[in-house]
Write a structure and sequence with these properties.
mainly alpha; single chain; Arc Repressor Mutant, subunit A; 5 helices; 125 residues
Amino acid sequence: MCHVSQQPAWNVLVATCPSRTSLARIANKWTAMIVSVLGDGRMRFGDLRSAVEGISGKVLTDTLRDLERDGLVERRAYAEVPPRVEYELTALGRTLHGPLLVLSRWAEEHIAEVLVARQSYDARR
């Protein structure tokens, strides 16, 4: 098995580069919201679902599994009755929190301009 240091230079612009899958994952709106919420600390599934309005249980489950698979989120299950499961960002996931927070803030700060641009574009069509 090759070590990361022995890998070729990664380039998301190359169609066969595996970094594209990571970019697709982190560019997903649900990923961005989940990572942003988990930046505040460990949370239970129900609390996550309440914090991210509009996400279905299935989409939340699937996204959390994908994030766990990619090493961004850690899932902890406790042998209790009823069962308790908590999620938190890993060290790798915490490196993603800041950039996604910046993108989220950009979206909030510039949505008025985007809406005006959309309206202008639609009026010309």
